[in-house]
Amino acid sequence: MMRTTLLALAIAAALSGCIVSRVDPQKPELPLPDSLPAVERETVQLPDPWWTLFGDPVLNQLVDEALAHNTDVAVAAARVQQARAALRITNADRLPTLDLEANASRSKTSSDVFALPGVSRTQTTYTVQGAVGYELDLWGRYQRASEAARADLLNTEFGREATKLALTGDVARGYFSLIAAAEQLARGRDTLATREESLRLEKLRLEAGESDEFTYKRAEADTEATRTSVYQLELEVTRRVTSLGVLLGRAPKDLVERAILTSEVDLPTPVALPAALPSSVMERRPDIGAAEAALNAAAADIGVARASLFPSISLTGAFGYVSRELDDLFTEPTEAWSAAAGLFQPIFEGGRLRANVSRAEAVREERKAQYARTVQEAFREVLDGLNGQRLIESVRTSNSAQVSALARATDLAELRYKQGDIAYLELLDVRRGLYQAQIDLVAAQRDALLNTVDLALAVGGGLGDKAEALSVRR
User: Fold this and answer.
1) pLDDT per position as a tens digit, 417-426
2) Quick one: DSSP state of residue 460?
3) Position 179 in a domain
4) Which of 42, 71, 339, 382 has the greatest CB tally within 10 Å of its CB?
5) 457-469 residue pLDDT tens
């Protein structure tokens, strides 16, 4: 009968603990679209890892280097280790503690205080004792604390993956921006060489009396303007190299030599990505996973705070041996033990405990808002990326047609100028238009690639075998 009663009390206490401390995270329901706009041109599926969709071995190598050496990734990995240790600590709080103590002491009493005949004033005592302590988790306090720590660990793991994913995007953007700047610089240098040759010919015509100083000076000014543009592009390339070097943890000199000095690296062909459904976006994006884990941790913290309002019951026990002779230490007469149970109930804390509950509930409300904001931001990025695919592709197509038209117009203008049908200023206008259109076309190709990068990250990207399967823990 007694065992049945104790079992019933234990079950009732466990159930009451679940009721008292379990808290609903209250994940908000958001008005999200069932589907996203389709892309007009042919699309490709997003591979895993995502950056391989460009088929660029140089980019693949740079991303691998960045993931291995970037300091932000190292910081995020250290935070994961901290969270794992914190989880082990909270799990340990749910288990009994067992301690062992052994000591030996020797003492001598004063003859004025202790002077019994035949009894030695010098004593030696040997003690070996074990102590056990356990606090009953009747209200689920330690269980909720463990859940909070587990959610915090998941949050840091998702945070690490988000850091790595953002890093891969930054490397891809930096790489494409560098190659685009290098291509623009190559166009500028070619144009400058053409301008310098034209200036030389105009000088010969001026000296021969076939032209005037005004035409020569306009040619000279146009040459210097092109030279200024080249200097600015060289500065842009230098800045891009520095930025990429920070991401990689080194200066990519080999890439600079190939991309800038020899122009062996070209921008890859832009590709279009398909629209993802809202559910798949939410499953793949690590920042959404991190926000959800943070919300779950906040809900568990409320349970911890609520459980602190109720009494705690602790059980302690000690068992050991105390002897004056080492040989008799582990014999039955030297046995000593004790057992105790204690109850602690907060009575007056000045409102501290209830304020702690209120604070935990306010943190949950904050995490709810952060989760909603993260999801909404995710879909804004997806929609911006899809719209960008369509509009940037239109810009690129127009730029390409403009370059073709101006290239033909330049050839015709060169011929007409040589025949004396147009003035040199008209030729300069066409040349400047062609040069700017070439620069703009490279920029449009770069922007299309950058938009692809943004959209790939917006729909969750993918780190391949470098990422852990975190979704199974959500």
Assistant:
1) 888 888 878 8
2) T
3) yes
4) 382
5) 888 877 654 444 4
